[in-house]
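Reply to dn_fold:

You asked what the input looked like. This is it:
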Amino acid sequence: MPVEIIKIPDLGETKDVEVIEILIKEGQSVQENDSLLVLESDKAAMEIPAPKSGVVKKILVKVGDQVNAGDQFIEMEIEGAAAAPEPAKAAEPAKAEPAVKAEKADAPVSAPAAAEKRIELVSVPDIGGDNDVEVIEVHVKVGDEIAKEDTLVTLESDKAAMDVPSPLSGRITALKIKVGDKVSKGSPVLELEVTASVAPQKAAAAPAESKTSAPAPVAAAASAPAPAVKQEVAAEQASAPTDGKVYAGPAVRKLARELGVDLSLVPGNGSKGRIQKEDLHNFVKARMQAPATQVTGGAGIPAVPDIDFSQFGDIETVAMTKLHKVTALNMHRNWLNVPAVAQFNEADVTELEEFRAAQRKDADKRGLRLTPMPFLLKACAKVLQEYKQFNVSLHSSGEHLIQKKYIHIGVAVATDAGLMVPVLRDVDKKSIWQLSAELAELTEKAKNRRLSKEDMQGACFTISSLGAIGGTGFTPIVNAPEVAILGVSKTQIKPVYINNQFVPRQMLPFSLCYDHRAVNGVDAGNFATRLAEVLSDIRLLLL
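and this is what came back:
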């Protein structure tokens, strides 16, 4: 049975997805659509099914690897597929074997294949539709002997760094690009002198034998120089002086920006000194564990020292999920970068709750559970229309604001894996019933970790509700690049002085946290007051 290489299928726009579980082992038989491994991105976990039935011959990835669409991950012997038609070819030369042997005996010198050399132009292959991708490293030079699949150059786009392999073996005669050039699919990379074998004419009577014997010396000649070349590159790397150039991929650069680390100070342990995430983490850990006296200024913050808690009792070290780690990193970044202020208020939602209770039968007919959240969404959308300064984002230059003319609102959802914020789009254009149905669908997807990238992008404003849990108030962290977030607590019955008497009313406490760089206190006070008015009389939503 033939052996096929199984590759990672299309993952959408998700890149560098981590392998968190391998569900099969070598030698195991699997059926079509059986799960092979589990991948986890920043937003969801996904299982990769078997495209065919067969036997797993070799596993090419391990837990912790990061993969992309098209990466090879197992070799599988396919069941029910026809084997390669080699026996038919082998039957024919059996008759010609005596003649071939006789010919070899008469003229043993003429048996080896002749070789001819030609120049091949190697171009940039398909790089996923990206154009003007920067060349950040050239791994070869003129005169190098390279083997097929040896890395030629490394390209870096806004999303990823990628190595371009050689499609052929041969000797490099000319380089067409240099570090810093911008290239696209089809751009010339280099000229390669390729040695091709040509079988002698009198060997035509024995095609099977000539095919198997002739390419062997060529392949050996092409692949033999590879170790020497790698040793030479390693020697050059070891002796080359530091020129201040940083070799790191986009993911590492992004992480460095978020952590505030100067990559030129980080030693790289990857190929040719490339900085990897592990190098960055080790650098930060070393700096944080250094004595506090070494923090000389700037944004340096002494780290909380690690403590051996086992001296106090039994402990267990539990690994954080990838989602939890990403959330923690984002919250830390937002806390450090956003000068947030909180505005507290209450809304009398007695009539809203009476109206909601009256719609219970209609909700049951629609198969929906009408919660207060659709009303909060609709009310926030109306107030965002009136106070447009809350529907902005700060440009990184600090010179201007980006005013948004759409109203998309995120809703924080607690899941077993961590906090997720699906986004409801065009909230101002949808009815309460539409919002209720969409919110239920997104909440279910969040809890099952089936949210797509698009489901979590584009929010202008966020609502975080702890109403079902309790509490009288809290201050959520602004989710930059948004400039405000609403924190909703539990509705409580309180005495309210109305018409010269105290009457019991259902009061909803909420807090409005906002980025003081974009919003001033007067605007925040007006926003909170208007939101309380709309929630107190939902007829205002019709105006």
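Confidence is low (pLDDT under 50) at residues 86-111, 201-243, 292-298.
Hope that clears it up.
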